Amino acid sequence: DQQVKQNSPSLSVQEGRISILNCDYTNSMFDYFLWYKKYPAEGPTFLISISSIKDKNEDGRFTVFLNKSAKHLSLHIVPSQPGDSAVYFCAAPDDYKLSFGAGTTVTVRA
Amino acid sequence: DAGVIQSPRHEVTEMGQEVTLRCKPISGHNSLFWYRQTMMRGLELLIYFNNNVPIDDSGMPEDRFSAKMPNASFSTLKIQPSEPRDSAVYFCASSSEPPTPQFFGPGTRLTVL
User: Fold this and answer.
1) How many angstroms separate the CA atoms of B22 and A98, rounded?
2) A95: distance to nearest CA of chain B, Å?
3) Which residue of A has its CA nearest to B41?
4) Distance separating alpha carbons of residues B34 and B60, to the nearest angstrom
5) Spatial distance between the Cα atoms of B113 and B102, rounded to a whole number of angstroms
6) Per-residue pLDDT of chain A (110 residues; tens, 9 = 90+)
7) B45/A98 touch (CB, cutoff 8 Å), yes or no
8) Do A32 and B99 touch (CB under 8 A)?
9) Which of A32, A43, A49 lies nearest to residue B106, judging by beta carbons?
10) pLDDT value at position A96?
11) Which residues from chain A sit within 8 angstroms of residue B57, using beta carbons?
12) B104, A45: Cβ pair inside 8 Å?
């Protein structure tokens, strides 16, 4: 049973605009969430995380929002750049085990 | 910091051969993870070490797979004998005490012919 879900397999956005990636989770015990970015033939790269005591965390162009009541989080990338084209995974740890979403492929158009 | 280092990056071998994958975690991290990524199953956790001790090896597919962590800066994943269905990308990741981010290595792409 997948505890972390990314229902949009792909997203296409114009350079300079905002990319919004969504993630839903089912386990109400999750209290820490992460976003990873993955290029082909490379390992996932940690982007940003958020603890459940917060509802927003910002790092440069990346902002993660958490809505605990809806069991939903989102990643905003502003402005989107061509180098942001990659697969993005949200993840949540249950102790040491990371549950990953299926990923969203972002394509930034010039 | 150099990040998690894995070697080799690519390995092509014939069925029945022994394969050894290597990982150097980030210095200071006390947790190490081996994952396998396939198209069908996505990213699967194979084994988790904490302070060099295997804590959870329930993801190791069968007895042909074994993993060791002789010290805090080195781990190996061995497949013996290898089979074509073992073809996948194998990632090593390390972290401080959970829950903290896991940092992944570049992966080893294994092809068993």
Assistant:
1) 22
2) 7
3) A102
4) 9
5) 32
6) 689 999 999 999 999 999 999 999 999 999 999 999 999 989 999 999 999 999 999 999 999 999 999 999 999 999 999 999 999 999 999 888 889 999 999 999 99
7) yes
8) yes
9) A43
10) 85
11) none
12) yes
**Which residue carries 């060099």 as its tokens?**
B52
Q: What are phi and psi of B3, to 5 degrees?
A: 80, -175
Residue of chain A with shortest Cα separation from B47: A97
Give the residue on B whose Cα is nearest the Cα of A96. B98
Q: Tens digit of pLDDT for each residue in B57-112?
A: 999 988 999 999 999 999 999 999 999 999 999 999 999 987 789 999 999 999 99
Residue B27 CB contacts under 8 Å (≥ 6 apart), including other chains: B1, B73
Task: Note whether A35 and A49 are within 8 A (CB).
Answer: yes
